[in-house]
Amino acid sequence: MSSILDDKLESYVWLLAKQAPDESEIFPVDRNFLEKRLDEIKSFNAVSFLYYNFEMVNDLYVTQLLACLPEIWTDIKLDDLITLSENFTNVFSYCTLIKYTYKYIEIDIIEIVLNIVAKKNRDDFKSVIEYLHKQWNVLIKSAETMMDFEDGFIDVDYHQWMNIKQSFLMDKRVKPALLTYTEVEEYVRRFVI
User: Fold this and answer.
1) Strands 175-176 and 107-108
2) pLDDT in tens, 146-185
3) In the prediction, which pLDDT does 193 show?
4) Backbone angles phi, psi at 108, to 5 degrees
5) Sign (positive or negative) of CA dihedral 10, 1, 99, 76
6) Which residues lie closer than 8 Å to 54 by C-beta, 6 or more apart?
7) Of the candidates 86, 124, 110, the residue with the CA atom closest to the CA atom of residue 3
8) Farthest CA pair distance, the chain
């Protein structure tokens, strides 16, 4: 775990999360706010940056932040996501990672994350399963979310995300996400406590 810990980055993530809602045009954070800070963000270890955001900041902010920062994901591999999961200390981090990777990157790492959680903390494992059973619909990219990308609301080229997806899918352990409500609901229901 020590390799992803960075006190300076931890403070920076907190500061960024504090400033973003007040300084962004779109709540809670937007690409324009991040553009001014992009070089500094990219100067940090990307895995550590993801870790602190998943671990310390709320889901709404993290989802919007990461949707605006495909650059952070360019060199991230499945093993990095496994490292994140192995170091998470709360159930919200697992749920946000699953939701983000499934919905935005369109990759399925649910079983991989569940296996890690099951070994670490049985109560967290149960909570993640309950989350999936009750909130499975948040794993689907809605038409509105797609329009946010297509209309430039996110201000990121959607094709960047498809390239990141393809990079992840080169790892045989990663599966493509299912894309319909019926398929996703049936899929998550098979996970049992």
Assistant:
1) antiparallel
2) 887 777 667 888 889 999 999 999 999 999 999 999 999 9
3) 82
4) -110, 110
5) positive
6) 62, 84, 88, 93, 96, 97
7) 86
8) 45
Number of C-beta neighbours around residue 110 at 10 A = 21
User: Which one-letter DSSP state was computed for residue 137?
Assistant: G
What is the total residue count of the chain? Answer: 193
To which residue do tokens 């609901």 refer? 185
Kindly tell me the sign of the dihedral angle through the C-alpha atoms of 105, 108, 110, 112: negative
Round to whole Å and give the CA distance between 11 and 153.
28
Give the closest residue to 4 by CA, choosing from 51, 56, 62.
51
Alpha-helix runs per DSSP H in the chain? 7-23, 31-35, 38-43, 46-56, 59-67, 70-73, 78-87, 91-103, 110-120, 122-135, 143-150, 158-169, 181-189
Report the sign of the C-alpha dihedral through residues 26, 43, 57, 158, in that order. Answer: positive
CA distance 171 to 35: 31
pLDDT along the chain (193 residues), means of 10: 82 97 94 96 97 96 95 97 97 98 97 98 97 97 83 80 96 97 96 89
